[in-house]
Amino acid sequence: MVSGMNRALILPPLDDPKAIFEFAMTYNGYEEHGSFNACAGAALAKRRATLTDLRNELFFACRASRHSGNNGFVEAYAELLPLFEQFLGEAD
């Protein structure tokens, strides 16, 4: 079941990297998982079984992109967007 807070998530459009980054930063995978390594492990596993899994994967992609100085997170978001829509659609 999707919580009330998650029902309020507004997914940014694919053509707006700034909005995608801001959306990703509304979640903190380091805090949620307790460490960088735990966050990275969860993100790289690409479990994608929950909305939290998706948010963590996008968060980590954004942090990695920022560190690398690229926009690879936009590709990650494009891959995750249908899954986000599926999870959020189930909340209706």
How would the blueprint of this fold be written?
Blueprint: H1 4-7, H2 17-24, H3 29-33, H4 36-45, H5 51-68, H6 72-89
Helix pairs in contact: 4-5, 5-6
Give structural notes:
It is a single chain. The chain has 92 residues and is mainly α. It has one domain (15-89). Helix content is 68%, strand content 0%. Helix 4 (36-45) packs across helix 5. The protein is globular, with a radius of gyration of 12 Å. The N and C termini lie close together (11 Å). Mean pLDDT is 89; it is low at 1-5.
What's the tally of helices? 6
The general outline is globular
- Decide which structural class fits the backbone: mainly alpha
Number of domains: 1
Tell me the helix content: 55-70%
Key structural traits:
92 residues, mainly alpha, single chain, disordered N terminus, 68% helix, globular
Could you provide a short overview of the structure?
The chain has one domain. 68% of the residues lie in helices and 0% in strands. The chain contains 6 helices and no strands.
